[in-house]
Fold Fucosyltransferase.
Amino acid sequence: KKGRSLILCWRHRWGIPTEGHAEGTRIGECEITYNRSRIAEAGAVVFHYTGLDKEEMPWKHYSVYIRIDPDQYFVYTSLEAPNYVMHGEHKSLNQFNGGFINWTMTYRRDSNVFCPYFSSHVARPYYKPEPKYIPQLWVVSNCDLLRGSRLRMDYVTKLVEAGLPVDRYGKCFNNKEEFAGMSSKDLNSYKFYLSFENAENCKDYVTEKFCQKGLEDGRVPVVWGPKKSDVEQLAPPGSFIHADDFESPAKLAAYLLYLDKNDTAYREYFKWVEYPGEEMERIKKLYARTREEVLCDKLLSNPSPNIVESVTD
């Protein structure tokens, strides 16, 4: 039974059939399936957090089977902050502790399976040297659901009051369609992206706002939410600006306006591209294999049983 290479995803992420890998996808030596009838073949069964409270979950029907198959691993996966899972979607995960979940697969570096927003095949951010102009870009749909949501809205309001032009789009500003209709030329013209998360000081919680909207799209991410020390462990050195380095939103606004007028200073945030250095080697290694690649590696390495104490930290 050891070394089984089938990974059963109990349901698609958020229950949306187009989310996640397609049926039969090969990742390394492993195969992805959604066919629950193959549960006995699976080395791992992956549960997205949105499906952990569903009636059809296997603990309702396979309690004996679970006990006699210690070589199968139940994996909890989520890219959302726990605060949002519990308070935004009102899902209590405490009932699944105490031995049901063996491994976690999340954005946290200390997860059993590291599952960052930057998957290995897109973890190659690049810099586009086309002319850019000063307005910052910010797209947000969560306005006041969580404390972090309210704090970031307040911070950006203060940036604008301090004289920083910020182009704001999304559900919160009733112009989601307008943003969707923007041309690639317009989108590529922004120098900065406000990578403001909806959770404050949530360990390693750095989302697509930083990864795709910032680095991958050739902008400098301006970060609020995660601790700077966490971002430094996850991002290329010198690639971002953190709000915690400034005494006030007004000070940050003044600095961004300064960068707009000083192209040499602005380009310092892309120095890691031209002169990667030793720190970039660590970053490349961190993202070399992620998500199901790591899960497959763990399954094929004949791991010893590992019970997660909590999925709600």
Remarks:
- The first strand starts at residue 6 and ends at 9.
- The radius of gyration is 21 Å.
- The chain has two domains: 6-116+289-301, 136-287.
